[in-house]
Every structure is written in structure tokens, then in C-alpha cells.
Amino acid sequence: MIAAISLFLIVTLSALITKIASIALVHTGLSAESAKFQARSAYTGAGLSTKETELIMNHPVRRKIVYNLMLIGNAGIVTVMSSLILTFVLPETTASRLYGLLIIVVGLTGLWFAIRSKWVDRGLSKMISSMLRRYTDLQVQDFEAVLHLKNDYKISEANVDSDGWMCNRTLQELNLREEGITILGVYRKGDNYYGSPSGPFKLQADDVVTIYGKADGIKSLYQRKKDFYAHLEHERAVAREEERRQAEIAMAETEEE
Predict the structure, then answer these.
(1) How are beta strands 182-187 and 153-159 bridged, if at all?
(2) Is 75 helix (H, G, I), strand (E, B) or coil?
(3) For residue 228, what are the domain limits?
(4) Counting beta carbons within 10 angstroms of the beta carbon of residue 158, is it exposed (0 to 12), middle (13 to 18) or buried (19 or more)?
(5) Among 107, 135, 163, where does a domain finish?
(6) For residue 80, which of 10, 3, 15, 2 has the smallest C-alpha distance?
(7) What pLDDT sits at residue 17?
(8) Whole-prediction pTM value?
(9) DSSP 8-state assignment for residue 177
(10) Cα distance between residue 92 and residue 115, in whole Å
(11) H-helix or E-strand containing 249?
(12) Is residue 115 part of a domain?
């Protein structure tokens, strides 16, 4: 019975640890779903894809969180397996084994419902976030929520092609803000990273541009070349963005009334 109770407590603690880790990863700027997946993958040792591994390894705080999670996960999994074996090996009677099995089934079922509960999730998230703010130096910020990466908004990186519409033009000439697209930064090979560049900044071939805006607008921007059609597409995008803004203003006025 003691082994069965120990197993339940260890599994509960494991779920809590992965929850804390996922919230901590969200505070470094990851989306909630990505943070949850990476926390569980690191804890169980399942491994991550190459792209997701780069997101972790290139960020010192995320790397530290995942490193500690992997260490705890190895110890936790071994302990769980040991407790599970002892639950059915130590008891000498069938009744004791069934009693241990009942404790495990009931306990894990209750834990599963608790994990699935939105009320429990909100309460835990609020408590853990408060503790992280108070006792750690993590930057407590969910950048997905801050940038509203929903409703078809996204952040993307684009390589500036030598024959692309953006190449050798200033941001003022491109006038992307009128399309609802914002240049968050530009990385130039052999040079520094330029954060939030202003109007006179000129894009060059092979620059890597970090863009924020609507997914369809970003896709259109990627496809433009140095021709007349690129100018027409820019004008269409500006018109669409203006229509969207007017619709939002009308909706806001209607709600106020």
C-alpha cells in the first residue's frame, strides 16, 4: 500500500513539475502549446525536433529550465517504475495487490480529471506565475498574448532576395505599415542586429527580416518581385488594410452605442 501511495504522489509531483516548467517557458516568450509540449518531452526524455531544440538551446533561460527538467525527469521515471514494481511484488496476498491496484487506479483517475479541469489549470497557473514573479528573475511575459498571435496574426522571418521587391529600398519607400505589416528587426550578415529600424533604413540582399502582421499579407510580401505587379499588389494590400481598419472602427463605435 505504501508503494502504491508513493507512486501516486510521485506521478502527482511529476505533473506539477511539468506544469511549472511549461509556465516558466511561456514566460520566456514561447506559446502555451509549444511550452507544454517541450516541458513534457524534456521530462520524459522523448526528444524534440531540430527546430524546437534550437528554440531551447539558443535561449539561456529556456536551456536552464529544460536541463533541470531532464535531470528531474530521469530520477522521477526511475522512481515511478520502482514504486510500480514494488506495489505488486512486496504484497504477499492477492487482496493486498488488488488494494494497491485500486489505489493507483483511483488516484490516477482523480489526477487525470484534475489535470483536465480548466478551473484547476487557471488556479495553478495563477499561483505558479505569482511565485515565479516573486522568487525568480524570469521575465514574466507571454509574448504570444502580448502580440496577439491569433486571428491570423503571426511573426515570421523573411530573407530579402536580390530580385525581391524589398531589396535596396528603404522602409519609408516600402511603406509596409500601411499594409498592416511591421518590421520588428533586421539581421545582416557580418553586421549587428537592427531592432525596430526606422524609415531611412535600407534593406539589402540576404538580410533576414523579422515581420509581424496578418498571415496573408506576409505571404504576399514574400512573393513580390521587382516588377509592376509588385507595386499593384502593394496598393491592393494597402486598400485591404484600410478596409479592415474602417470595419474595426465601425464595430468599436457600434459596441460603444
Answers:
(1) unpaired
(2) helix
(3) 151-256
(4) middle
(5) 135
(6) 10
(7) 78
(8) 0.48
(9) G
(10) 34
(11) helix 228-256
(12) yes
What is the distance between the terminal CA atoms of the chain, rounded to a whole angstrom? 64
In a domain, 140, yes or no: no
The grid cell for 79 is 522512481
Residue 155 lies in a domain: yes
- Smallest CA-to-CA distance from 3 within 112, 115, 110, 96 is with 96
Please report the pLDDT score of residue 43 as a whole number: 73
Q: Does residue 144 fall inside a structural domain?
A: no
Residue partners of 113: CB distance under 8 A and separation at least 6: none
Q: What's the grid cell of residue 183?
A: 518590421
Q: Is 113 exposed, middle or buried (0-12, 13-18, 19+ CB in 10 A)?
A: exposed
The cell for 59 is 535561449
Same domain, 95 and 124: yes
Which residue stretches of the chain have pLDDT < 70? 1-11, 31, 46-60, 73-108, 111-112, 114-115, 132-133, 135-151, 256-257
Number of H helices, E strands in the chain: 10, 4
Give the phi and the psi of residue 187 in degrees, each rounded to 5. Answer: -105, 125
Q: Give yes or no: residues 34 and 118 share one domain.
A: yes
Instruction: Report pLDDT for 37.
Output: 80
Q: What is the distance between the alpha carbons of residues 64 and 57, in angstroms, rounded to a whole number?
A: 9
CB of 170 closer than 8 Å to CB of 191? no
**Distance (Å, whole) CA 154 – CA 232:** 24
